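Hey, can you fold this one?
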Amino acid sequence: MEHDPLRRGIAEFVGTFTLIFVGMGSIAFIQSNLLVGVALAHGLAIAVMASAVGHISGGHFNPAVTLGFLVTRRIVPSLAALYWLAQLAGATLGALALRGLFPSEANLDVGVPVVNPTINAGQGVAIEAILTFFLVWVIFATAADPGGAFKSIAGLAIGLTITIDILAAGPLTGAAMNPARSLGPEIVFNIWDDWWVYLVGPSLGAVVAALAYEWLYLRADRLPVVGTPDSGLDEPRPGDAAVS
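Sure. Predicted structure:
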């Protein structure tokens, strides 16, 4: 089934809205900020929404993921720009909805990711890059790879990757792995501490993971671009051989 850009963009908006509303809400309302609960809330939100609308938009919900697909030519620039707009709008309105519904909850701003004072900004960039590398690597392995498991376990695998990333480094950087996850709340709560860390780190990690998986496992076998829902390319790239 073909899906027009508007419907794909709406799917990205809803998924990103869900991530922010559920993720930020878990940080603000889970008693004592129990890390396991926060990690599961973020991971399950993505697992559910990726499973729900992955067949429509690919279930990116993350500008860094979209960047990875763009640099490997698995999404056309115009559609990538639409995804970025939808993701930022979803993140901003998700944070705004929390603020509007719970105006008395002064601790909602703890959902804005910041770098822990025990590390410096450079370490924050490295941590976010590594965590996002894991995420995008899993996305390419399960969703972009023709031999992957998109229809069966991709949503679960992606959600669990987010969960383990937050468990590993949530106390250090918030484990955003997602520029929209930081920008939306930053806009709403006007907190800009180390904002660039959450643009540079995830972007670097996503590009490295996407290019590495593409060159190691996809391009090496000369596999054609197949019908992943988020691809703006309907035919194999020049030089790609059809799989017999």
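The chain is about 65% helix and 0% strand. Let me know if you want another pass with a different chain boundary.
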